[in-house]
User: Fold this.
Amino acid sequence: MVIPAILFYIAYHVVGIIPAVIISLTYSLISAIYSKLKNHAVKNSQFIGILGLVGSATAIFFTGKEKFYYIPSIIGNVIFGGFMIILSIRRKSVLHYLAKDFEIESLKLIPEESMLNINAIWIIYFALKIVSKIVGMLYLNFNQLYWVVFLLGDPMTILMIILSIILIRIHYAKASKNNR
Assistant:
């Protein structure tokens, strides 16, 4: 994920926004094709990234404004954040919902209601991403906005995953203790 971000940033400064999106999209497509040729599954993140780049290119092309590059990701963040809010209102764990197809026995020990704090931190995270992009589109130049979005992307997502794992381990320990 870092290589396409670096390629995009360099290409943006050298040749402009549309060529940068095309270069990034080309890299993403080559990466997905290479994975397929090596008999590896194309990752969901690769597919979502390609769709996001196509959406971003479309937004820029039809508006002529480079900051509109982030509109598709704002829409995606709103949809996923909304999904998390709906599950939380229904007192359902997003993690349980996403992992239900994987038959993770240890996760079945943890009651969904005790996992709602993980939903809450992810909802806050998506709200932060949405607000930062909207405010950035209004008040920052594209270069500044790019770095804000990048830092709230991969690095912050890694921190969120680590925090989620810590919380899951705490809940698992409590659930294991209660089931003895």
